[in-house]
Specification:
mainly alpha; two-stranded antiparallel ribbon; flat
Length: 184
């Protein structure tokens, strides 16, 4: 049955097969292992169900590749189909809702603080323009990155010269120390 299932995978579009083929085979191996513990009738039912799902999925993916991702609703099933354009954990929606709620609460709190402070408009002297531009900060960042890279390179060069890299070739199971064999 594995050979038949593998050959039926070639009914899928090549991009889909390249992306999900191995995963589909591993799931089928797991189904086969689970059904191996049960009777022969349940194995036959599982094989027919998997082959039918494979054929429907191939037809759906070909329709999706021709019509587009939203045009193949006539082949849709109740199950969620694997789509590469929609991959993120389910908890993301909950986390985003919590973050949105926190931002709304923070805005509301800021408005209440602003409303509680009495309005005062003291006279302010003319504000002098700041002579700070983006170019000096970018130049400073570039110099800091170059200095950090130079220090890192110097450390790696010194370690290479000291012979620390030779420790990776050291095999303590050989029983050699300073060129002589240990005797038991």
């Amino acid at each position: 049955m594995l050979a038949i299932y593998r050959s039926l995978l070639y009914l899928y579009p090549s991009g889909y097969r390249d992306e999900y083929g191995e995963e589909m085979m591993s799931v089928f191996y797991e189904v086969q292992a689970e059904m191996g513990k049960k009777g022969s009738m349940s194995r036959v039912v599982a094989c027919v169900r998997e082959a039918g799902g494979l054929l429907r999925g191939a037809l759906r993916e070909h329709a999706r590749s021709i019509v587009g991702p939203h045009g193949s609703s006539m082949f849709s099933s109740r199950r969620l189909a694997m789509r590469s354009e929609f991959r993120f954990p389910k908890a993301t929606v909950t986390l985003m809702a919590i973050i949105l709620g926190a931002v709304i609460m923070a805005i509301d709190k800021a408005r209440s603080i602003q409303a509680s402070v009495p309005y005062a408009n003291p006279r302010v002297a003319p504000i002098q323009p700041v002579q700070f531009t983006v170019l000096p900060s970018l130049l400073l960042t570039l110099v800091a990155a170059c200095v950090s890279g130079g220090i890192g390179w110097a450390i790696l060069f010194a370690l290479q010269r000291s012979g620390v890299h030779r420790f990776s070739k050291l095999d303590p199971s050989q029983g050699q120390r300073s060129g002589t064999k240990l005797s038991a």
